[in-house]
Amino acid sequence: METELLYLKDSYLKTFSASVVRSEGRSLILDRTAFYPGGGGQPCDMGSMVFNSGKTLKVIEVKKMSGEIVHVLDGEPDGTSVNASIDWERRYRLMKLHTSIHLMDGIIRRDFGHGYITGGQIYEDRARVDLDFPELTRELAQKIEASTNEEISKGLEVRVKYISKEEALKIPDIARTKPGRELLERLDEVRIVEIVGLDMQMDGGTHVRDIKEIGNISIVKFENKGSHSKRLEIKVSGT
Ligand SMILES: [Zn+2]
Q: What is the pairing mode between strands 27-30 and 81-86?
């Protein structure tokens, strides 16, 4: 049975109740969850659960295995239902970093017409962004940082919607990585994250509702990895 993925519809859901489907050792499968299992460069959520037996356990890892979300706990589950909470401080920062990467991608496309982000990884406190952008220098990166912060201060809505594969295939660069394009071929319905007027891409992650929630980004590292390949590290300082 596939787990119902509550975070796809509401990325601000911090607590939820669910029924236990089964458990094995310290691994637990619920009928529904708000815990993000990791993927697309965004790390999994952590948090805690209180079972109807009264037992409380920490969620130390979450992963997706053939349609089911496996919660790895710090002890053996005991009960048939749970009240769970995700570590919101961690998740909210991951959301802000994730939306920041999409925002920078949109700004670079708008201002340079190329320089696409080829990969990224979000960590608890920062994000790494890889670009194929031959002319990117430290100075230019600072300009991108300034334009990104200017957009953030103005604010823009971030929308999540579902469209058909046929519709998605008509949008240029809707999937920007090879695994993304392969996944798109296998889907009937595609989840789109849109920073209204700036960026639109296929995405399974969790994002803020408005870019102004990001607060401020700073580029903390610039690396010249080759004639085409550049790497940036960013941090966010929003509330
Ligand atoms: Zn993304």
A: unpaired
